[in-house]
Amino acid sequence: MLRTWVYFLVVMAALYLAACLVLFVFQRSLIYFPQPRAETVPATLLKLSVDGVEVLVSSRPHAGPKALIYFGGNAEDATYNLPSFALAFPDHAIYLLHYRGFGGSAGAPSEAAIQRDAQALFDQVYASHREVTLVGRSLGSGVAVHLASERPAARLVLVTPYSSVLELAQQQFPYFPVRWLLRDRFESWRYATHIRVPTLLIAAEHDEVIPRASTERLYRHFATGVATLRVIPDVGHNSISESPQYLKLLGEGL
C-alpha cells in the first residue's frame, strides 16, 4: 500500500513538473496573439530597424508639435484605430506600433523587445514632434507607462490598464509558481511611481479581462495629483472603444 502511494505521488509530481515546463516553454503564446495588418485601412507605413529587426508602424503624418503614439492590446491590429484617431485628433501626427510578429513586423514579441522598439519609435517621433502623447491599451498600457518613465512624454493615457501581468497570471494559474516561471512581467506599478506628466486611466465598468482591483492598484502607485481614473459604464474590455465616451475621454487626456 505504501509503495502504491509513493508511486502515485511520484507520478503526480512528475505531471506537475511537466505542466510547469509546458507553461514555461509556451508562456508567450498565452500572452501574445499576433494579428495581420489591415491592408484596407489607408495608412503611411513606417519601417524601424531595431537590433536588426524590421518593425512596422502605421501612421498618419501631420506637421506641427503634437503627436500620438499608440500601443495596442495583445490580440489587436492597431491599424483599425487610425481612422477614428485621425478624425478625433486632427492636429496630431499619429503612430501605431505593430509589435514584433504583428502586422507584418519581423521577429517575435517579448517584453524587452517591445520596450526597445517603443523607445526607438519615440526617439524618432520626438525629433519632429516635441509634444508626444502616449496611449496604451490593455497589454499596451504596460508598454506606455514604462516608456513614459524613461522618455519625455507630454501626457500618458492608459486604457483598461493593469498593475502587472505577473499579478494577472498568478490569478489565472494559482496552483503554479508563476513568479518563477514568467519572463514577461509588465510590472506597470514599478514605473508608475516615476511618472510626473498628466496621466489618465480609463477603465471599463464590466471588464472581464482586467479586474478593477488591478487597475485601482496601479492608480494608487502614481504620485498624488498625477493621475486621474475614469470608468466608462456599460462596456467590457473589448467593447470599451465602441462607447461614445471613449474618444471623448481620450481627448481629455490630450
UniProtKB/TrEMBL annotation:
<protein>
    <submittedName>
        <fullName>Alpha/beta hydrolase</fullName>
    </submittedName>
</protein>
<dbReference type="InterPro" id="IPR029058">
    <property type="entry name" value="AB_hydrolase_fold"/>
</dbReference>
<feature type="transmembrane region" description="Helical">
    <location>
        <begin position="6"/>
        <end position="26"/>
    </location>
</feature>
<keyword id="KW-0472">Membrane</keyword>
<keyword id="KW-0378">Hydrolase</keyword>
<dbReference type="Pfam" id="PF12146">
    <property type="entry name" value="Hydrolase_4"/>
</dbReference>
<keyword id="KW-1133">Transmembrane helix</keyword>
<keyword id="KW-0812">Transmembrane</keyword>
<dbReference type="InterPro" id="IPR022742">
    <property type="entry name" value="Hydrolase_4"/>
</dbReference>
<feature type="domain" description="Serine aminopeptidase S33">
    <location>
        <begin position="189"/>
        <end position="243"/>
    </location>
</feature>
<dbReference type="GO" id="GO:0016787">
    <property type="term" value="F:hydrolase activity"/>
</dbReference>
<feature type="domain" description="Serine aminopeptidase S33">
    <location>
        <begin position="80"/>
        <end position="167"/>
    </location>
</feature>
